[in-house]
From TrEMBL:
Ranges annotated as spanning the membrane: none
Highest taxon in the source lineage: Bacteria
Protein name per UniProt: adenosylhomocysteine nucleosidase
Domain Nucleoside phosphorylase, first and last residues per copy: 2-222
GO molecular-function term, one example from the UniProt record: methylthioadenosine nucleosidase activity
Species annotation: Campylobacter geochelonis
Entry keyword annotation includes Hydrolase: yes
InterPro entries found in the cross-reference section: MTA_SAH_Nsdase (IPR010049), Nucleoside_phosphorylase_d (IPR000845), Nucleoside_phosphorylase_sf (IPR035994)
Pfam family, one: PNP_UDP_1
Example GO BP: L-methionine salvage from methylthioadenosine
Annotated EC: 3.2.2.9
């Protein structure tokens, strides 16, 4: 089972609690562990769609992962979502994929769906874990792109165009990999900022805590799988 984050802080809470063996590969580090009868492969991809595509593919093709859980932080798009809140993706979409000049919808290229659905069984387990622990967990569409969104008009556009609840930089590329390779996947995000003006300041202040919240939640899910 793969657990992927984008930044070191997003998997640090896991590495603190699980004894791992480190492997260097493809200019990155992968952490192997035996944890509660699971063979885990843990990594942070580094930021963005290309890096996360590469890591998800490696975790599947080289390390044999059969399920992927993503843990990390995101910017809130919908007004009900506040810093520290947790959500999982029902579907993922690439907000910066744009061949609309040819009459195609935003997020579309031939041969791939605009929205990729996450795994219903994993999502249900997340809901069960949240209920059990009394955690307020929401869900929605998560939009990914190769940009840190800290601009009101871009934020509004992504929200309106895709009805997305949150924005980040890796979920949809991981989704494309998992869709193509038939690997069930789950995308968990804790809110670090609200993706508007000066979001980078909130991000810097709240990222570590939100990353912890997300990682702890995903670890609880592993206990159930
Ligand atoms: N501070 C980092 C850069 C962080 S980029 C550095 O200097 O290296 C933001 C990361 O958090 C990405 O991995 C992305 O998935 C997530 N994220 C959180 N808030 C976001 C937002 N408002 N827009 C896009 N991605 C966001």
């Amino acid at each position: 089972m793969a657990i992927l984050g984008a930044m070191p802080e997003e998997i640090a809470p896991l590495l603190e609690r699980i004894e791992t063996k480190e492997i260097d590969y493809a200019n990155n580090k992968f952490y192997l562990a035996n944890y509660k009868n699971h063979e885990l492969i843990i990594a942070y991809s580094k930021i963005g769609k290309v890096n996360s595509t590469m890591s998800a593919t490696i975790m599947r093709e080289k390390f044999g992962a059969e399920v992927l859980l993503f843990t990390g932080v995101a910017g809130a798009l919908k007004t009900g979502l506040k810093i520290g809140d947790v959500l999982f993706a029902t579907k993922v979409v690439q907000h910066d994929l744009d061949i609309s000049a040819f009459g195609h919808p935003f997020g579309f290229v031939p041969g791939s769906p605009v929205f990729v659905e996450t795994d219903k069984r994993l999502n249900k387990i997340a809901v069960d874990v949240a209920n059990e622990l009394g955690i307020n967990l929401t869900s929605g569409i998560i939009a990914s792109g190769d940009q840190f969104v800290c601009d009101e008009s871009r934020k509004e556009w992504i929200l309106r165009t895709f009805d997305a609840a949150a924005v980040e930089m890796e979920g949809a590329s991981v989704g494309q990999v998992c869709f193509a390779l038939g690997m069930p996947f789950f995308i968990m995000r804790a809110i670090s900022d609200e993706a508007g003006e000066k979001a980078e300041f909130d991000f810097d202040e709240f990222m570590v805590n939100s990353a912890k919240t997300s990682a702890n939640f995903v670890l609880k899910m592993v206990d159930r799988l």
